[in-house]
Each structure stands twice: as structure tokens, then as C-alpha cells.
């Protein structure tokens, strides 16, 4: 993969084995990168500044990496190996819909904050968090809780969350985000996700699909990842050093040649987002499992069309060319 001199591929010491748990780890010195290809973009001055707080609350600014168009980026030199490691013939799976997926709890202005106790407190944003007793918990082993406060334009995310009798919460790890900022988490830090990334911006929503436009990348999982992460990821969750395995943060896209014209509307909206904005590897899990919201407005029948896609319909891209500064999630146009 071509890289700029500012792009870091960071190996992490002491990472967990292949599991979905976002274990904390301490980064080692960066691995030397190959020389930048002719025309590759170097890092510009730090630009994590966000739009005015007076503006509307969106899920990160328009120039955030989650909103970056990757349809014209060059294919990564590691693409074939990474696709093969995830599963070239394996079918894609929309891990969301009506009755399953990641629920989002919206809270009103002034929602009372409660104590949150973390197993990995050294890499979690300290509480209190505005998480009500009624917050929806993801079913299954990861037990994510995602809370969005649109009045304050902030998001709060927990991994392995359990409500306590006194109304407080216990969790494996947690992160809080200013949705008007491009600032990334500290390098080497986990979040509520193994890659140290926010979960909320990677979830297609039914209302986006109904409007015909999903304007962001989509979170997805792979069975085995490398003991490494690349921008914008901040954390790895593996002991494997095989270069044929993708690192956390690797970005893929649905190939332009894949015909999605006959997909029903909801599936077509998701597939088009995968072509334009791609997908970011964010956790260890089942191959080509794409995350989204749990919402009764999804049609599971329509989303089933995505299951006709397979690994060879995807390719990894060199997203390093988008990077403005390693600690910022701001991307180049």
C-alpha cells in the first residue's frame, strides 16, 4: 500500500487474541513505511477544529473521514490478500434490520448523568455519562450501548454494558465524542470498539436509506486481523503478525463494476454507500458482517439482497491519501 510519510502503521504490544473484546494495548514504535508514491499527499498542519457549535448537529463534520468519498482512491497493494483472508467466496451479511442490529438511544437535553465503572478504565473516557436506565442494550455478546444527545451534539458508547441496581452502569470500555469535532482518540486507546473508533458514524439508518442517501462509510468485522492498526483506527486486537491479515482501520469498497441496479431500495442505498464511502474494519467477528441500526423501519426482505454480494466483490483501498494529520479524523476532499 502506498503511504505518505505521515501515515503510521502501528504495531501494538500485548493485544488480545482474536476476539471481539476491545482489549487495551500499548503501541510500539511505528513500523517504517515504504517510500511514498509519486504524487502522494503529505500531512498538512493539524486541523481537528470543528464547525461552530451554533451549527446543526450532525454525526461528525462533513470533512470527517467517515464521510470521505473513496470511490476514486487507488486499490491497495494488499487488497487481494486481505480479501482472501476475510473470505473471497464468503457472502456478505447485513447484521442489522428489523429486530436486530445496534440500537441507538436518543436522550433529551439535560439528561441526568450517572456513574459508569470500566474494566479498562485507563483507556476509557471517565464518566459520568447521560445514560438512562431505559437505554437499549445490544443483544449478543458485545452488549453495546449507544447514546446520542443531539442537544449537546455528543455521543456516548459502551462495550459490554450492564445496568446496575442503583442506575449506574458497568462496562468493559467506553468513549464519549463531540460530534462537531474531528479529533481522534489517543493512539493506542480502545473505545467501545476494538479499533478504537466510534461506532455511531458507521451505522446505516433506515431513515437514511428511505431518503436514498447514506453519506458515510459502514462498520464491518473480519474473523482474523493483524496486530496493527492504520489511520483512522487507534487500536489493534490481535496477536497475529501475518501481513496477509488486514489491520484495524483497513478500508474496503464495493467494486464499481458490481451491478446493484436491481437491488430493492433499502439494499441499493446501502450498496451504493459501500461503493462511494466504503467500509471500515472496526472489530473482530464474522466475515463481511456489516453493522447498522436495529429499527422496525428496515425491511429484512429488502436487506437480504445484500447477501448476494461476496468477498471478491470488494477491494481494499489506500485511504492513507485522505489523511490530513494522524491525530485528526479530518480527511482531504
From TrEMBL:
Pro residues: bias regions: 24-35
Low complexity composition-biased segments: 36-48
Region (Disordered): 21-48
Top-level taxonomic group: Bacteria
Alphabetically ordered keywords of this record: Signal
Protein's UniProt keywords contain Ribosomal protein: no
First and last residue of the signal peptide: 1-19
Protein name: Lipoprotein
Organism: Dactylosporangium vinaceum
Lineage of producing organism: Bacteria, Bacillati, Actinomycetota, Actinomycetes, Micromonosporales
Amino acid at each position: 500500500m502506498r503511504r505518505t510519510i505521515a501515515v503510521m502503521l502501528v504495531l501494538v504490544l500485548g493485544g488480545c487474541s482474536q476476539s471481539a473484546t476491545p482489549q487495551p494495548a500499548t503501541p510500539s514504535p511505528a513500523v517504517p513505511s515504504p517510500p511514498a508514491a509519486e504524487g502522494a499527499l503529505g500531512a498538512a498542519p493539524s486541523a481537528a477544529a470543528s464547525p461552530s457549535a451554533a451549527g446543526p448537529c450532525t454525526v461528525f463534520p462533513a470533512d470527517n473521514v467517515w464521510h470521505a468519498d473513496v470511490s476514486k482512491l487507488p486499490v491497495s497493494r494488499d487488497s487481494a490478500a486481505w480479501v482472501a483472508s476475510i473470505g473471497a467466496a464468503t457472502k456478505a451479511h447485513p447484521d442489522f434490520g428489523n429486530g436486530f442490529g445496534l440500537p441507538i438511544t436518543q436522550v433529551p437535553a439535560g439528561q441526568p448523568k450517572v456513574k459508569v465503572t470500566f474494566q479498562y478504565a485507563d483507556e476509557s473516557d471517565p464518566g459520568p455519562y447521560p445514560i438512562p436506565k431505559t437505554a437499549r442494550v445490544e443483544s449478543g455478546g458485545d452488549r453495546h450501548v449507544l447514546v446520542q444527545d443531539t442537544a449537546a451534539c455528543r455521543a456516548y458508547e459502551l462495550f459490554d454494558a450492564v445496568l446496575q441496581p442503583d442506575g449506574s452502569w458497568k462496562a468493559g470500555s467506553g468513549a464519549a465524542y463531540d460530534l462537531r469535532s474531528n479529533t481522534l482518540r489517543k493512539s493506542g486507546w480502545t473505545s467501545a470498539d476494538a479499533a478504537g473508533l466510534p461506532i455511531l458514524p458507521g451505522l446505516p439508518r433506515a431513515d437514511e436509506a428511505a431518503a436514498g442517501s447514506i453519506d458515510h462509510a459502514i462498520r464491518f468485522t473480519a474473523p482474523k486481523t493483524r496486530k496493527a492498526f492504520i489511520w483512522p483506527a487507534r487500536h489493534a486486537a490481535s496477536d497475529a503478525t501475518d501481513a496477509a491479515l488486514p489491520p484495524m482501520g483497513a478500508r474496503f469498497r464495493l467494486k464499481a463494476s458490481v451491478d446493484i441496479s436491481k437491488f430493492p431500495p433499502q439494499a441499493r442505498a446501502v450498496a451504493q454507500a459501500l461503493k462511494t464511502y466504503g467500509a471500515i474494519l472496526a472489530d473482530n467477528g464474522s466475515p463481511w458482517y456489516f453493522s447498522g441500526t436495529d429499527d422496525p423501519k428496515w425491511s429484512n426482505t429488502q436487506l437480504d439482497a445484500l447477501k448476494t454480494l461476496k468477498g471478491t466483490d470488494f477491494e481494499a483501498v489506500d485511504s492513507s491519501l485522505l489523511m490530513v494529520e494522524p491525530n485528526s479524523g479530518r480527511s482531504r476532499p
